[in-house]
Amino acid sequence: MTAHAIAIDTVYAALEDLRARRPLVHNITNFVAMGVSANILLALGASPAMVHALEEVEDFLAISDALCINIGTLSPPWVEAMHAAAVKANTLGKPWVLDPVGCGATPYRTKAAAALAALKPTIIRGNASEILSLAGETGGGKGVDSTARAGDAVSAATALAKRTGAVVAITGAVDYVCDGASLADIHGGHELMPLSTALGCSLSAVTAAFAAVRPPREAAIAALAVFAAGGSAAAENARGPGHLPADMCDALYRMDRATLARSVRLLDSTG
């Protein structure tokens, strides 16, 4: 593969467009992530909604710009609502992101993630263990945490992208975006980020927001780049992981081209 740099201007243009259009992101997400995800979406410039009831997910999706499905706290009624929302998103042509939280941890969770992946998500965003498990390989996760490096899951992500038609984003110390034919890697972020709960879930919501204003692969790259830059900027002054989500909100609210340029390095590999 031949690697070349991805222009920061492309990412910043996507962010400016998101801020101008303020997409409404419909989230079916877990209890832990709701508040953090909503605050981060607002700080970024999007509009969040946490709508889970089967009786209204289809109606609400009709007025939304994108959908994020996060399986962090599963229950049968929520799984039913997730399926209904995914089908409706496809019917309406709305982009949707699947976050297969903890896929591989239990048979029920793995089966739920696989069934949702079969419904043709626009983007799948997960850690290495989740992506490996969803692709049918041994994920090696520890609950909802990954014990594998993102780079270990690139081959599995490529196969998963070809099978589902989704763009697959793997997050870790280095992030990767695969569409089955090409690979982009995003270098940035900070070691404090995995120590704050709900940041990964919030990134999936951010990915959905970008998917409302950009094609899937470009949206995934922009989301990961902006979030990594936000984490890097927030960690400069954060007192510790407990304060990082609030500092992330501030950093994303203030995000500009200069911060992006100094905080992340983007490479595109095409074969």
Question: Overview of this structure, please?
Answer:
There is one protein chain. The protein has 271 residues and is α/β, with parallel strands linked by helices. The protein has helices at 8-21, 34-44, 54-62, 76-92, 107-117, 128-134, 154-164, 199-211, 216-235, 244-253, 257-263, and strands at residues 2-5, 24-28, 47-50, 66-70, 96-99, 123-127, 167-171, 174-178, 182-187, 265-270. The chain has a single domain (2-270), classed as Ribokinase (UDP-N-acetylmuramoyl-L-alanine:D-glutamate ligase, 3-Layer(aba) Sandwich). It is 48% helix and 18% strand. It has a ten-stranded mixed beta sheet with strand order 1-10-9-8-7-6-5-4-2-3, with helices on both faces. The longest helix has 20 residues, at 216-235. It is globular and about 45 Å long. The N and C termini lie close together (5 Å).
Low-confidence stretches: 141-146
Sheet with the most strands, sense and barrel status:
10 strands, mixed
Whole-Å distance between the termini? 5 Å
CATH superfamily: Ribokinase
The ordered H/E elements are EHEHEHEHEHEHHEEEHHHHE
* Global shape: globular
User: Could you name the CATH class?
Assistant: Alpha Beta
Please, how many domains?
A: 1
Briefly note the CATH topology name: UDP-N-acetylmuramoyl-L-alanine:D-glutamate ligase
